[in-house]
């Protein structure tokens, strides 16, 4: 059975197999070694994620432990409590507590699985004013970069407290001058370049934990290993 | 447990999660309903595929039947027997027999699973002369469009004999005037447009069999179904 890496998160995960998406790129990167399994739920925050955790990751007899799970929530938790997306808001201390609960659940279910947290990305507030999901004209963004930054910081703290790796996307993206336009297409969701950045950073983080195609068993002989003079030799071993 | 669609084939399947790839697009199309599982083995022909069938599709207790399996071989079987890729060649009658054996194996293992054959694509012979995998300068292509066409025809015949759907890519692609350059990047593997065509044709074929996101149970409540005034209501049901 080929091992799995689960991608668990909100819309930024759910959309990750769209053209040039970071999830699809990861599946391509691990094409002969790992099944990359999409578990993205658009709009979800950590409060809702906790409600569905056992359904998303059911205990399956003989199902084996996944190699890794990426946990990528916070962009919705960080919606401001006094603007139109307030129903998605989760207070900062609860977000931290929820993330801890998600990590604990996964560690208990699969002690050897590598858990990797991803912070929410920065917010392009101008981009959010053009948000097509809001019915009324928006004059104030429902998310701010400052709020997202507080949740990102909390996410990094949880990772440190749990002793697991974290990809601090909020900080990483803002190191690039034109990050708002380069990486975000509506102030929140990723452009192809934004997807590329997430993919490349994840590849490095996973490799740091020993999870790269070179270190993993290849599913069936590679074409380049097959003996041109006796192709079936390999399969009969 | 979310149902699965397996993609079984050669390099055109293995590369299908690369940027704009048809496999990734399919995974995105079914993002909340189906796990699209990659089982592509670059360079493989049906003879080698038969050797590994039980390893690729092991019988797992309680594993459930996949919704569908795409079987996409023939581009390597159709290599000419007197050119440099002769070790990949499989005679036409054996190719037909092997395809029948693959379909029988899958039908026996999973009687309710929809099997869908895909014919090899047409061959751009000029593109093959620039094939980077050949060590010596190539003056004659190792694949011809005529040979690929014979295998495609055999594939269509097998589908008819088995009473299963088939995507006749060889015929479909050649309906477009500039197919060699539009759909093929090296006379064999797909361009973004070629990937798009495979994806769109597959979506239609699968929908014809009742397999589309609208007809399948959605994994967990959609954001749009959640009650803004009482978000947890949905999860407590």
From TrEMBL, chains A, B:
GO molecular function per UniProt: hydrolase activity, acting on ester bonds
Protein name: SGNH hydrolase-type esterase domain-containing protein
UniProt keyword terms in alphabetical order: Hydrolase, Lipid degradation, Lipid metabolism
Lineage: superkingdom: Eukaryota
PANTHER family: ISOAMYL ACETATE-HYDROLYZING ESTERASE 1 (PTHR14209), ISOAMYL ACETATE-HYDROLYZING ESTERASE 1 HOMOLOG (PTHR14209:SF19)
Similarity annotation: Belongs to the 'GDSL' lipolytic enzyme family.
GO BP of this protein: lipid catabolic process
């Amino acid at each position: 059975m080929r091992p799995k890496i689960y991608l668990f998160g909100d819309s930024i995960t759910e959309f990750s197999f769209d053209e040039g998406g970071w999830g699809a790129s990861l599946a391509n990167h691990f094409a002969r070694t790992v099944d990359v399994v999409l578990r993205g739920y658009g709009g979800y925050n950590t409060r809702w994620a906790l409600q569905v955790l056992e359904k998303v990751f059911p205990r399956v007899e003989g199902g084996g432990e996944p190699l890794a799970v990426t946990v990528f929530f916070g962009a919705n938790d960080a919606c401001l409590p006094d603007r139109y997306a307030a129903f998605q808001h989760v207070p900062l201390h609860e977000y931290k507590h929820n993330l801890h609960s998600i990590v604990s659940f996964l560690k208990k279910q699969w002690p050897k699985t590598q858990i990797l947290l991803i912070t929410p990305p920065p917010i392009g507030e101008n981009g959010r004013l053009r948000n097509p999901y809001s019915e009324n004209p928006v004059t104030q963004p429902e998310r701010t970069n400052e709020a997202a930054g507080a949740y990102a910081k909390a996410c990094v703290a949880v990772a440190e407290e749990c002793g697991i790796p974290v990809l601090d996307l909020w900080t990483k993206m803002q190191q690039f001058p034109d990050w708002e336009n380069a990486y975000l297409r509506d102030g929140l969701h990723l452009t192809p370049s934004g997807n590329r950045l997430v993919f490349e950073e994840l590849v490095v983080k996973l490799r740091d934990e020993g999870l790269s195609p070179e270190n993993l068993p290849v599913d069936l002989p590679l074409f380049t290993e097959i003996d041109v003079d006796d192709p079936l030799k390999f399969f009969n071993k």
